[in-house]
Amino acid sequence: MQTRRGDSRLRERDDRDGVRAARDGRARQGAFSQMVISFYYGGKLVGQTATTCPEGCRLSLGQPALPGAKLYGPEGLELVRFPPADAIPSERQRQVTRKLFGHLERGVLLHSSRQGVLVKRLCQGRVFCSGNAVLCKDRPNKLERDEVVKVFDTSQFFRELQHFYNNQGRLPDSRVVLCFGEEFPDLTPLRSKLILVQIEQLYVRQLVEEASKSCGGGSLAQTPEAPQLDQFFRMFPDVCTSHQRPFFRENQQITV
């Protein structure tokens, strides 16, 4: 009788441990599936959101206006809208940004998991990117239309983070940047780029914040209220020149 009760307790404990492990596993996977998406127009933060859908999201201008209009991308994806250009102070910059919006109707699809971040360009307008999984770091990286591309490798980030804690490397960058309508990365100041979208896995972002605090709050530290592009400023020193440049170029051409 005692043996049966003992076996029953063991099974109950194993069941509880299994449920707890499954719950913790789902929580970790959920953290990796969530993304923090920040929008910059002319180098200024104009909007930020955190995704919650495990299947990913679609970055676009909004739902089709007409009943029965085609929805680009899987219907189960969370919709993340580009902020309107109304808040842009320069009239010329607003006009050029809205012109670029005309080529972004279909948008891009984003998916985040423990393996990393994937992106698929659907829109007509050209999209360029940077991220730790992008091979070419020193020249523009164009996303081909309808092609799924891995732009962030989570495992690589963890390896680099371990090297950082072992004093064998720098704090790794947790960010993916998409640039719409213009080549990127290049020597053009970031504040001259019409539309930049910064993407981070929520869990990885938190790890970077913790690592920054542990080393004295380095310049990579970010707060959800006011994310910065400090690392990109270091990548492109001309952004930090003392004289001010306009947020846009008067002869700017939108390419598709």
From TrEMBL:
Residues of the Interferon regulatory factor-3 domain: 32-212
On the tree of life, the source organism's domain of life is: Eukaryota
Ranges where the record places region Disordered: 1-25
Q: Which GO terms describe its cellular component?
A: nucleus
A Gene Ontology biological process noted in the UniProt record is: immune system process
For this chain, one GO molecular function annotation is: DNA-binding transcription factor activity, RNA polymerase II-specific
| UniProt-listed SMART domains | IRF-3
Pfam families per UniProt: IRF-3
Q: Write down the InterPro entries for this protein, in alphabetical order.
A: Interferon_reg_factor-3, SMAD-like_dom_sf, SMAD_FHA_dom_sf
| Full protein name | Interferon regulatory factor 8 isoform X4
